[in-house]
Amino acid sequence: MSRRAAIGILWHAVLIALLLAMFYPIAFALSNSFKSISDAYSSVMELIPSRPTLENYSRVFSRLDVWRITANTLFIALVASVFKVLTSILAAYAFTEFSFPGRGVLYFVMISTIFIPFNVTMLPNYLSITSLGLNDTLVGVALPQLCDATGIFLIRQSMRTIPRSILEAARMENRSSLGMLTDIVVPLTRPAILSSAIIFFINSWNEYVWPVLMLKSKENFTLSLALQMYISSEGGTEFTVAMAVSVLAMLVPFGLYVMFQKFIVSTFTSSGVKG
Amino acid sequence: MNKAMGKLAAVLFLLVVLSAGEAAESKRTVVEYWHPNAEAQGGLVVAELVADFNSRSKTTEVRERFIPDMYKGVMQNLQAEAAAGKAPAIVQIGWAFLDYFSNNFIYTNPQTVIDKYFPEDATFIADNFLPNITALSTGGNGDLLGLPYSLSSPVLYLNRDMLRAAGLPENGPDTWESLREFASIIKERTGKYGLYVQEPADSWAQQAIVESAGGKFITFENGRARASFASDEGIRAFGVYADMVLKDKSALHITWDEGVQSFIDGNVGMLYTTIARRASIQKGAKFDVGAVGSPAWQGHTKKLPAGGCFLAITARSDEEKKSAWEFMRFLYSVESVAAWTKGTGYVPPREGVADAPNGLKSFLAENRMMEAATTQMPYVARWASFPGDAGLQAEQALLDMRDVILGGSESARDAMTRTQDEINQLLQ
Amino acid sequence: MKNMNVKAFLMLLPSLSVFGAFMFWPLARTFYISFFEWNMVSPVKKFVGLGNYAALLGSPLVHRVLGNTAAYALILLAVNFVVPYVLAFVLSQVVKRGRALYKGAFFLPSVISLVVGSMIYTWILNPISGPVAIAAQRLGLSAPIWSKTEGAVIVVLSLVTSWKIFGYNFIVILGGVSGVSSEVIEAARVDNVPLWRIFTDIVLPMSSATGVYLFVMTVVQGMQFLFTPIRVLTMGGPNYASSNLVYHSYHEMFVVYRTGTGSALAVITLLGFAFLLFLEFRFVEGRVYYES
Questions:
Q1: Is the pTM of this model over 0.80?
Q2: Partners of residue A132 on adjacent β-strands
Q3: Is residue A58 part of a domain?
Q4: How many angstroms separate the CA of residue C167 from the nearest CA in chain B?
Q5: Radius of gyration over alpha carbons of chain B, in Å?
Q6: pLDDT of residue A233
Q7: How far apart are CA B151 and CA B143, in angstroms?
Q8: Termini Cα distance of chain C
Q9: DSSP 8-class letter at C253
Q10: Residue A122 and residue A48 share a domain
Q11: How many structural domains are present in chain B?
Q12: In chain B, positions 36-75, which contact chain A (CB-CB < 8 Å)?
């Protein structure tokens, strides 16, 4: 028994050490966002600033239209996540409910888009969006992100767990397919839908490579792009201000995650692939 | 679930309406001005200047576009924009991209625009720019590609406290030979590194080292450019620099931001980098920090590549070209150039600013570190820019060469000779 | 029956059109461009057939990048596949207390943007004056100048990327491991089968579908996630020692503007991923179909 307890404590120690290592960068960013630049340079190891200051935040707010930038980020993330979820629900339902010729192939083709790296599509998409006149617009950023194979996969996995008897009973009542979808299937797959939506939202919120290519006007910037204004230029990196922007960019994903943690964790734990 | 969806849809709709309401009508010609000036590097001044201009101009409205990732980012976006058949009206072009720009993009000589639409400005360029300065932005065919706007040169920043602690004169070394000794002594007596030479994604500082030893990055034979840095002078200079990193271990081989950070927090005694970093170094450093001009090699005169950018007119329509010059003329006024210098730390590109009371007179008196750069202007020359499509690959080959030499996997002689051959192959 | 097909088609139409316009059409275009020599702006595209591919496969630089890519894959798999697998087993069999807390906390860094993460790590990992280097110094160790050291640079960039993917992988694999029938495990425990045998002989095979899925996704996502840290921290340097296939194709396309070569590299990346896709379908989706 005591040996078992010792092993348990040992494993806890390993896990806690790992956790500390993973949380350190977050603490580091938070801490430095409250330091003056010369303190940040001279007291690197100090996690709790000895002379805390709000100057970095006040600079961010006075120089950047933070609300506008946040609204832009929110707009893109909302459009992307809502559309991704809607298109995924429809597609997942089509794959679960109907059997039609070519179903397997089509599913394969759709899921295979997960395996297309972004460097393959980036340049042609840039050209397409520009020819639509949507360069430097939020809609242009959102447009290629209206569908996501991961969503189809996750939601379909969840739909497949609905007991057949429930669906059979509904069919006996002569419900339309769409009616069945909205009244029975969607409510039963709610956790998968919700957590897909949140993950899509967070991913889009954090996205960097594609918006950086599309957006040029400061009025259209997202939070990740605003960060660019403070790093690696000929004049140097405004490190502490960049940390303040980073903290602001982290707030929403953090908040969402804390609020919906249960859903997200349980969706990925339970509706993953079962062996 | 449905309720939540409804709420989401409502928020969404509201946001769409809000962003659509932004498009306000304007009768003036609207032109875009592209720049890579992040907040720490003049971004605020750009915004101020543009706002000031827009409040005065009756004909033109300028929209500034910040492009991340410095001049390389500007080129990338210009390239992507051109692929889509569009272009901004005015762009900042980094010196290293001068030839690539002139070979691949449509531009208009500012003098052409002036002669056609602004006879009152006919002698503006000749009156205000020294010939060696306009020469910087002149292409191989003698055509003026644009006007120099941001000018910088490499200087040597000193941690005077550390120099004193090592028993060294606080005014620093004036030759690369003595700089090497300084670095060794710092290493020996303080345990800290002596020197860091900037290593961003260009070979600007390395060119200064080689050319201040009498080497030449590029030579022109019958109008054809050839790489020529692997001369005995060049190899010797680069060899000493590599020895400091590899043998003396008194110089650091590290990325740019890491290196500058290490200087500011007192882990490196001397920093060889652009004058444009003065403000942020001054602000971050908690020790007695100074700056002196770039050193030369014994028996040689220093020769320093100009850093920064020139302003090019890339507008396509006549209307936009007119607007572009109107804006440029505003940017080159004494007051605007003074504001630009204060906000960025660049050296003014035109005459009549440094001594003017409405210019920089009092600013330069208060910021003595600027002297390191303003006094070495006579030594400033063209940044090596390899012509043609192969130019960017040549630039890349130089970066690879730097990594190989300073990483110790090849000697300066071998790597430089090999790279020179490779580049000349590309240029053919 | 026909009616059903129409309905299914209509439901698939939105996703099909988005995928068609922004995935498959650009894919075809990239494939097309890979047969040309083109700098993205020049009006002239020079047809070179398979020339770009031939040049790439013969280039020592590309061999190097392929080697790096393999090294990245191995490290990412060790950190984000093997470690979470073992930890998930530990949490489901050895230490059960605090399980929910660990699950929730490990996932947290996954919601942070990689640009933000890379930005923070630039400072934390500064080999001279970052906190890690200082701590190492206090312990009497000297940290290598990893950002300019071949090999070390790959390890460090993999760790930065792992910060983003570890939590997600951990949760997914925990789901797979907890899905293993507890009766079987209890029976084995009663028979005094050692824990590691339970892990290798029972848990691994019984959670293999999740395992394969995660194995594949770690490589596919990891290679793309690596792009941002590489770009922010090293730009592929020193001398390409930290460039992987995805970054290198970007480098060719958008840094030296050999758009054709870059596209050919993108196609090669895609072929590699296609092989992983094949694995995934063979072992994961196949089983799913079999069940239904």
A1: yes
A2: none
A3: no
A4: 28
A5: 24
A6: 62
A7: 20
A8: 21
A9: I
A10: no
A11: 2
A12: 36-44, 63-70
CATH for B365:
3.40.190.10
Contact A273 C276 (CB under 8 A): no
C40: which chain A residues are within 8 Å (Cβ-Cβ)?
Answer: 123
The tokens describing A257, both together, are: 């995650």
Identify the CATH class of C60-115+150-291.
mainly alpha
In chain A, the residue whose alpha carbon lies closest to the alpha carbon of B5 is A82
Measuring CA to CA, which residue among C277, B84, C249 is closest to residue A120?
C249
C148 touching B (Cβ < 8 Å) = yes
User: Rounded to a whole number, what is the distance in Å from the CA of A85 to chain C's nearest CA?
Assistant: 10
pLDDT confidence of residue A270: 63
- pLDDT of B400 reads 92
Question: Which residues does B393 contact at the CB level (< 8 Å), separation at least 6?
Answer: B426, C256, C258
Nearest-CA residue of chain B relative to C41? B83
Inter-chain CB proximity A233 and B66 less than 8 Å: no
Q: What is the DSSP string of C146-199?
A: GGGSTTHHHHHHHHHHHHHHHHHHHHHHHHHHHTS-HHHHHHHHHTT--HHHII
Contact between C4 and A100 under an 8 Å Cβ cutoff? The reply is yes
| A73 and A186 belong to one structural domain | yes
Q: What is the mean pLDDT of each run of 10 residues along chain B (428 residues)?
A: 50 50 62 88 90 94 88 84 86 90 91 95 93 87 91 95 95 95 96 94 92 92 87 95 95 91 94 91 91 94 93 95 96 94 88 87 88 88 81 88 94 96 90
B88: helix, strand or coil: coil
Check if the beta carbon of residue B212 is closer than 8 Å to that of residue B302: yes
Other residues' Cβ atoms within 10 Å of the Cβ of residue C28: 11
Q: pLDDT for A55-98, tens place per residue?
A: 999 989 988 889 999 999 999 999 999 999 999 999 999 998 88
Q: Average pLDDT over chain C, rounded to whole?
A: 89
Per the structure, how many domains does chain A have? 2
Candidates C30, C232, C254, C263: best to mutate against B (most CBs of B within 10 A) is: C254
Same domain, B299 and B181: yes
Which of B349, B235, B309 has its CA nearest to residue B71? B309
Indicate if B108 and B121 belong to the same structural domain.
Answer: yes
Q: Are B315 and B89 in contact (CB under 8 A)?
A: yes
Identify the band that residue C285 occupies on the pLDDT scale cut at 50, 70 and 90.
low
Determine the pLDDT at residue C82: 96
Q: Identify the domain containing residue A43 by its residue range.
A: 1-53
Q: What is the pLDDT of residue C183?
A: 85
Q: Determine the longest span between alpha carbons in chain B, in angstroms.
A: 81
Examine residue B14 and state whether it is found in any structural domain, yes or no: no
User: Tokens representing A12?
Assistant: 């806890």
More confident residue, B351 or C67: C67
> What is the CATH number for A168?
1.10.3720.10
| A213, A217, A238 member nearest B40 (Cβ) | A238
Q: Is the pLDDT of residue C289 over 60?
A: no
* Residue in A42, A228, A238 nearest the CB of B286: A42
Residue pair A18/C101 in contact by the 8 Å Cβ criterion:
no
Confidence of residue A28 (pLDDT cuts 50, 70, 90): very high
* Statement to judge: residues B320 and B286 lie in one domain: no
pLDDT band at C35 (very low <50, low <70, confident <90, very high): very high
Q: Within a 13 Å sphere around the CA of B32, how many CA atoms are in the beta-carbon half? A: 19
What was the pLDDT predicted at C288?
A: 45
* CA–CA distance, C71 with C36 (Å, rounded to integer): 30
Those chains having 3 or more beta-carbon pairs within 8 angstroms of chain A are: B, C
Roughly what angle, to the nearest 10 degrees, separates helices A66-97 and B2-20? Answer: 130
B407, C254: Cβ pair inside 8 Å?
no
Span C215-239, average pLDDT: 91
The answer to whether residue B19 is domain-embedded is no
Instruction: Kindly state whether residues A202 and A114 are assigned to the same domain.
Output: yes
pLDDT value for B80: 78
From A206, A231, A274, residue closest to C113, measured CB to CB:
A206
